[in-house]
Structure formats: C-alpha cells, structure tokens
Design brief:
The structure is a single chain. 31% of the residues lie in helices and 23% in strands. It is an alpha+beta fold. The structure holds iron/sulfur cluster (2 copies).
C-alpha cells in the first residue's frame, strides 16, 4: 500500500520548499550532441525544482560524488610544540538527493556499511548524516544491458527517506502522479507537513498494484547464474583463460572504476610546507584497473597485468565485498560496461564463465 499520492506540480512545490533549507541535487538534462543519445542526464546542484528533469531514464554517473567527492581535504595540520595539531574538515551542508534510482540507493547502502567497517569514516558520515534521499523508482529497465534484477537492486525497500513511484498521468491528461512510500520519519514529516499530498483512495491503490505488477514483468534476468551462486562460479574460475583473453582489449583506463557507484577505493596524500611545517592530508578516488593501484615500495606491483586487475575487479564486485560487508558489491547498473571504450562487458564475463563451468 502506498503512503501518499502526489501530483508532479505539488512535488515541485515541495522540492522548492526543501531548497530553502537544503542544497538540492537531482537529474538535469544536458545536450551532448557528440554522444548517442544526444541528451544525457547528470546529477547536479540546482537552485529550483524546475531545473530538475524527473522524467530521466538514467544518469550517466551515480550521485556518489556528492557523498564521497573525487578529491577532498581530510584535515589540515600545523606544527605545535614538536608535534602536530590536526583540524579535521567535515562537510555537513544540509542536502537533498532527489530522484535516486533503486540501484543507486543500494550502492549508498553499501557505502553506509563499508565506511563503517573497523574504522568509521567520519568524513563520509558527516555528509551522509546531512543528506536526505528522495528516491525515484524505475517502472522498467532504464537502458539496455542493465542487470539490476539479477543483483536484487531493481527494487529498494529501505535506504531512502521517501520513494516516488511514477504511476502515469492523471485522468485530466497531462500531469504525472506519484505514489509515495515513506522510508524514515524525516521523509514522512517532509511530505505530511506541507499538505501537498493526499491519502491514496481505492483507485490509487489499484493503480499502485498495477504499477508493481507491470514493473515485475518489465524486468528480466540477464545472468545465467543466480547472484547467490556467483561466488561459487568465480571460485572455480580463478585460472580461466577468459581473464587474459578479455583483458587483451583493456586499456587500463579505470573508467569502469570511476563510473561505478559501488567503487570506493581512494588514495591518500600528505602535502607539507617545509618552511612552516603546516599542511593538509587529502584523498582522491583510485581505481583497481589503473596499473599503479597495487604498486608498492621497491617498485613491486602485486597486479602488473591487466588480466589480474580485471579479475580483481570482478571478484570484488561479485564475491569479496559481499563476504566482507554482507552487502552485494555490484548493483547491476552497467555503468562500467557503458563507460568501457573496449566494450568489456560484465554480463558477458559472468555468462562466459558460467558456460565454461
Ligand atoms: S573501462 Fe574498459 S578499458 Fe578501461 S580499465 Fe575498465 S575494462 Fe579496461
Ligand atoms: S560493477 Fe558495473 S554494473 Fe556493478 S555496480 Fe559497478 S558500474 Fe554498476
């Protein structure tokens, strides 16, 4: 059962109300004539709701950069009495991520888990704690090649403050109506406080049930192996010739890592002014496909070959992250596949391994 029903124009008014108190980030259409399709969607900062385009199918990148930026200062430091004094830098700007699809909500839930393993990442949680998530459900696959259903990520039942389900236009003709589910008290208060929404009536409930049935039929499986069996499949595939054969095409560019909503590796650098002794520690995204990723002192590289780096990434996504965190390491969004100039494709890798096995 839906919690509320809201019309698009009322939703836009609500987002404008939120924008008075929070930074708003959501899908924005951009013309990119050299690409196919020539209009693409990106999560961006906006000042007003009418700058958002909630009819988007998918955003090229996930909203991860707003929770863990590509580059950020962790703390500044100064010398003091022979030691150092650190001043951590946290970003606690109140923020609302609007229009987050279920796959990206699953990816954020993964971050919530891994950034709290052993050493809690206070910089991540400063942003996360200040961020409200207003999800947008997908009525069907957003584009070819996704395998979110295989990874259990085409539906989100938690990880949002409120989730919107686009039911279609209303009986008057041209305005989208959304069913809304609350995920948290903050989401409930946001919607109920302003009285822009209504309780669902019997017709709304039928429309919501139909929406869910149509959605179930619209998604199909792409993998020949169940998600639960991927670990066993990969356990038998470590020495497969497929890694070398596929990696011959790999440019080691790292685009698959950087576009992935569940990749979270970073590199740390200290910068010190030798005269004053003051400086800063900062981090930036790293990627396990980059040749220097596993390079250590003495010029030793644990994964010098592209094949070993490709295998490492696939094992992390399908096995190791889940073993360590309990959360599946890939949400099947296929951004890595779309970003890859060499057309290396995760679904093909899993399915070829299944065929070999
Ligand atoms: S995007 Fe493709 S070519 Fe680039 S590192 Fe990843 S697999 Fe290799
Ligand atoms: S590995 Fe590829 S399909 Fe899986 S979450 Fe990352 S970008 Fe999406």
């Amino acid at each position: 059962m839906a919690d509320r029903i809201i019309r698009h124009s009322d939703l836009m008014k609500l987002v404008d109300e939120v924008a008075r108190k929070r930074r708003i980030i959501g899908p924005v259409a951009r013309s990119v004539p050299e690409c196919e399709p020539p209009v693409r969607y990106f999560y961006e900062d906006v000042e007003r709701a009418d700058q958002l385009d909630l009819s988007f199918r998918y955003c090229v990148y996930s909203p991860k950069r707003f929770l863990t930026p590509p580059s950020e200062t962790l703390f500044a430091f100064d010398q003091d009495d022979g030691g150092f004094v650190a001043a951590p830098q946290y970003d606690r700007r109140p923020t609302a991520l609007v229009g987050v699809h279920p796959c990206d909500i699953h990816a954020i839930r993964l971050y919530d888990r891994v950034f709290d393993l052993e050493h809690r990442d206070e910089h991540y949680f400063a942003r996360r704690g200040a961020t409200m998530i207003i999800g947008m459900d997908c009525p069907g696959p957003c584009t070819d090649g996704v395998f979110c259903k295989d990874m259990g990520a085409n539906v989100a039942e938690a990880g949002f403050d409120a989730m919107l389900y686009p039911l279609g236009t209303d009986t008057d003709g041209d305005e989208m109506r959304y069913a809304v589910m609350f995920g948290t008290k903050a989401g409930r208060e946001w919607l109920l406080y302003s009285r822009q929404s209504a309780a669902p009536n019997a017709d709304d409930e039928r429309a919501f049930e139909k929406y869910q049935a149509d959605k179930e039929a619209a998604f199909s499986f792409a993998l020949r192996t169940r998600r639960e069996d991927l670990a066993e499949l990969l356990g038998r595939s470590y020495d497969s010739l497929l890694w070398d054969a596929t990696a011959r095409r790999c440019y080691s560019c790292g685009s698959c890592n950087l576009s992935c909503p569940t990749c979270y590796c970073f590199d740390i650098t200290d910068e010190t002014d030798l005269a004053s002794g003051s400086g800063r520690r900062w981090r930036e995204w790293d990627g396990c496909h980059l040749p220097e990723f596993a390079l250590v002192a003495g010029d030793h590289n644990f994964r010098p070959k592209a094949a070993s780096r490709l295998r490492h990434r696939i094992y992390r996504k399908a096995v190791w992250i889940q073993e360590r965190s309990g959360v599946v390491g890939c949400v099947g969004c296929a951004r890595c596949d779309r970003a890859c100039t060499a057309k290396i494709n995760s679904v093909e890798i899993y399915n070829q391994l299944a065929e070999e096995a």
